[in-house]
Write a structure and sequence with these properties.
Blueprint lengths: L1 H4 L1 H26 L3 H34 L3 H6 L4 H28 L5 H24 L3 H6 L5 H21 L1 H14 L6
């Protein structure tokens, strides 16, 4: 099984592949914030697309943590992340990511552009931005060497990432009507596109 999956090196490579994809998708999502009133549909589409990709990233990092604490030899040898990452940064990223995505889904499902959920969405974004910035600064420089490694099971890992991206595209596409309706509500409230 280790030869097929690549063991802890394979897990690290999967995490790096997903992280690289997330950097691109998050840059696109961030760009929509520059003009959210007119790019709300794109913002919602990319936000929904992110859900399966983020789930895969959480699964790969969760697997590493799980294997380390269960004393898996390869994972113990690799050692734990720095204590600040384990105690502060990682929990902040996980919680703020879940709240950010959940409130985004709620806003789309409830067709809301104002109120408590919008406030939670914005607040979780600022927590997420701080924690994620630290994470990228601490780990980003390691991506390229990890991605360049030739490991058993790389095709499987690329397939998993491709499947999560395909699932995200499907989810984003299925929710486009709701995102478009939300965009219409925002446009109408500022007098751009009356109903």
């Amino acid at each position: 099984m280790r030869r097929f999956g690549g063991g802890s090196d394979g897990n690290e490579q999967l995490t790096a592949i997903v992280a690289s994809l997330l950097l691109v998708l998050l840059a696109i999502e961030g760009a929509t914030l520059l003009n959210l009133q007119s790019l709300l549909t794109v913002h919602a589409f990319v936000g929904m697309l992110l859900i399966p990709v983020v789930a895969l990233k959480l699964a790969s990092t969760g697997w590493r943590m799980f294997r380390y604490y269960l004393r898996g030899e390869e994972y113990v040898r690799r050692g734990p992340p720095h204590v600040a990452v384990r105690v502060l940064v990682a929990p902040a990223i996980v919680v703020s990511t879940v709240v950010l995505l959940a409130t985004g889904v709620a806003l789309l499902a409830l067709d809301q552009t104002h109120g408590t959920i919008v406030g939670l969405h914005k607040a979780s974004f600022f927590v997420w931005l701080g924690a994620m910035s630290l994470h990228v600064l601490m780990r980003g420089f390691r991506l390229l060497p990890i991605l360049r490694r030739r490991l058993a099971g790389t095709g499987l890992r690329l397939g998993l990432v491709g499947a999560s991206l395909a699932a995200g595209l499907m989810l984003g596409t299925l929710t486009l009507p709701a995102a478009d309706h939300l965009q219409d509500n925002v446009s109408a409230s500022v007098g751009i596109d009356p109903r």
